[in-house]
Amino acid sequence: MYRAAVIGLGRMGSTFDDEMTRGGSIFLPYCHAPTYMASPHTRLVAGADLHTEQGAIFGQRWGLAPDRIYTDYRDMLAAEQPDIVSVCTTARHRAAIMKDAIEAGVKAIWAEKPFTISLAEADEVIDLSQRNNVSIAVNCSRRHNPFLTEARRMAQEGELGEILQITAYAECHISHNGSHAIDTMRYLVGGDVEWVFGEMESDEEAAADEDLKGNGYLAFDNGVRGYLRAMPTGIAPWEFDLIGSEGRVRSLANGTDTQYYRWVPGGLRDEGLPARAPFPLPLSIQGTGLSVMDDLVAAIETGSSPRCSAEDGRKALEIAIALRESHRQGGRRIDLPIADRSLKIHSVEIGGDALPARVRRLQQATSAAR
Amino acid sequence: MSDPTFRAAVIGLGRMGSTFDDEIKQGGQFFMPYCHAPTYAASPHTELVAGADPHAEQGEIFANRWGLDQSRIYADYRQMLETERPDFVSLCTTARLRAQIMIDAINAGVKAIWAEKPFTLSLAEADEVIDLASRKNVAIAVNCSRRYNVFFTEARRMVEDGELGEILQITAYAQCNLSHNGSHAIDTMRYLAGGDVEWVFGEMESDDKAAADEDLMGNGYMVFDNGARGFLRGTPTGAAPWEFDLIGDEGRIRSLAQGMETQYYRWVPGGLRGRGLPARAPFPLPTTIPSMGLAVIDDLVHCIDTGNQPRCSALDGRKALEIAIALRESHRRGGIRVDLPLADRSLQILSSGIAQDAVPARIRRLRAQ
């Protein structure tokens, strides 16, 4: 059993699963504390959060004594010596906390996305984790979704023929939930992005460092081309379309439908018809968080790389930044990797992070009651 | 409505001029009659009176097939124009000669031209033809024929009537050379998006292809003036052959597998956080499925009567070419955004339809036998 602790006791650290009423893109347990409670590999031993209200709720919910809740995560790391830490704070502090956790001797980190704010931060964390042999899993969780995992297997084993195109319709800010969209595109394609072209929602947004929406064209090193629409997608919410020469998989409506196409005889001039076949159902569907934990424990015990690694987290950020650079530079193709490591995106969720959303709501309720 | 029957002639008596419909076994992308001679033979508005082709073998087959006396088949189209004085001419030759023939036909006094695609090879040619046609009041319909396909016209009607909400995205998977069949793909994107392209980014299949003037495959990103964005994949599309996906905030239409299936989506209650689920509803079936060729002729007759522009006009044909060239320019210039219109009107794409056009494909096959 690994001793697990959560840093950042808000929504993703604790109660996100309560909001979910149906599966598809994720299956429960999904977020951090519920996963540590359910996993046979872990025991939840402590939490840390600057905001005492968050700590109190977390302690009660997960049955931790008040003395296992810390306001300073450094105190927690020193006193509890956890094996695994979750970093569910605002992304603003994620890099510093990951570094402190590595220095404190943790075996593994389960980090929320985006991985970091800047490329330099990402480089630093990856470098330090490699030197200290610490496994980092980034929670771009679609890599643990059984439908997308099966799609990836089909692509890797050649069942879809040559992979040609990945299209994603995913309205999002390109760092915040864009890290999911971009990472899933890379995962399904099984290649890496060589260059991009991007258009952001406006010149002003592109000029600033705040998170933003945009579209992009991605050229992968295995010949695949990608199109990402992260501007509003209307009636095509969160869709991934993986097109090969022999088959095609479409994940629709936030993962609630998965379609599979193969050629059958027929069609104009007998060139064949793409026919919809049943998508292979998984034999079982495990909670997404439990799959992350299995993966991370395997990484600790065998030295394997987590399925969504720190490198993957950095790639998603770098691609998002390159898309914005493309717009900033007047609309031109941008090659990866990016030389300027100081570039960053203030992931949209760090807006208003001086006070967590739940604490803001609690304070509003209290003042309204007065 | 004009009562008179218009005298129609075909220039270029090969596949599109005469026998293309014989190859087609299923509807969807095409509804018959589709190509030129069968349409003139079937339309109540037209009488097929003559044909012209420099290759005598083509003329002979054409005359036999469509019941024309050999005296109505001309080796020189100029002579045909002068002798027959047709009201309608179809331009089904290689695109290499299209602009010159259109100019000659306009000067010979035709009322309407039904031109194959691509409209021209160069932008300068397109400008010249359009300028002359508008001065002489000649209607030109370009055969980017999905505009005359009832499933696409219904989709466009739904866009115009706001039934799909705000149009956000048009995606096309259409393996093609960008000028040749790309003119279909690009024109259909414009037709469905209901806006015009302001700028593009394009990637061609190779630097060598992009540097040359030969027709080529490529992909592109298009920014429309109504806020819609377009993605065209003209490089190989594998299991997604000829697909158009039109996404609005309230509805979506997907035309799949060369028009053989049309899907329609609307929001229904449900979904994650109660934000709704996109559900597939039946796409409205047309009450009749008109022949696409007859729809072109109806449109042209209407334009002759009213002076209106055809549904797929010469302006549309020029736009499709200009967008294809802009996509290639984007690649040529190292992968940058290219704004429309293009200043350099000498730019051209040698449509893949003109390769080996010294001898038509049918003649080559006949001689090989």
Outline:
By secondary structure, chain A is an alpha/beta fold. Chain A contains 12 helices and 15 strands.
- Percent helix of chain B: 25-40%
Q: Looking at the structure, what is the overall shape of chain A?
A: globular
Q: Would you tell me the structural class of the helices and strands of chain B?
A: alpha/beta
* CATH fold group of the domain at 6-145 and 291-314 in chain B: Rossmann fold
Structure write-up:
The complex is a heterodimer of chains A (370) and B (369). Chain A has helices spanning 11-15, 32-38, 52-62, 73-80, 94-103, 119-131, 146-156, 178-189, 203-207, 288-302, 310-328, 357-369; strands at 2-7, 42-48, 69-70, 84-87, 108-111, 135-138, 163-169, 193-200, 214-220, 225-229, 239-244, 247-252, 257-264, 273-277, 334-335. In chain A, 35% of the residues lie in helices and 22% in strands. In chain A, strands 14-13-12-11-7-10-9-8-15 form a nine-stranded mixed sheet. With 370 residues, chain A is α/β, with parallel strands linked by helices. Chain A is built from twelve helices and 15 strands. With 369 residues, chain B is α/β, with parallel strands linked by helices. Chain B has a domain at 6-145 and 291-314: NAD(P)-binding Rossmann-like Domain (Rossmann fold), CATH 3.40.50. In chain B, 34% of the residues lie in helices and 22% in strands. Chain B has helices at residues 15-19, 36-42, 56-66, 77-84, 98-107, 123-136, 150-160, 182-193, 207-211, 292-306, 314-332, 361-368, and strands spanning 6-11, 46-52, 73-74, 88-91, 112-115, 139-142, 167-173, 197-204, 218-224, 229-233, 243-248, 251-256, 261-268, 277-281, 338-339. In chain B, the strands form two sheets. Chain B has a nine-stranded mixed sheet. A six-stranded parallel sheet of chain B has the order 3-2-1-4-5-6, with helices on both faces. In chain B, helix 6 (123-136) runs antiparallel to helix 11. Chain B is globular. Chain B starts with 5 loop residues before the first strand and ends with a helix. The mean pLDDT of chain B is 96. The chains are: A alpha/beta (370), B alpha/beta (369).
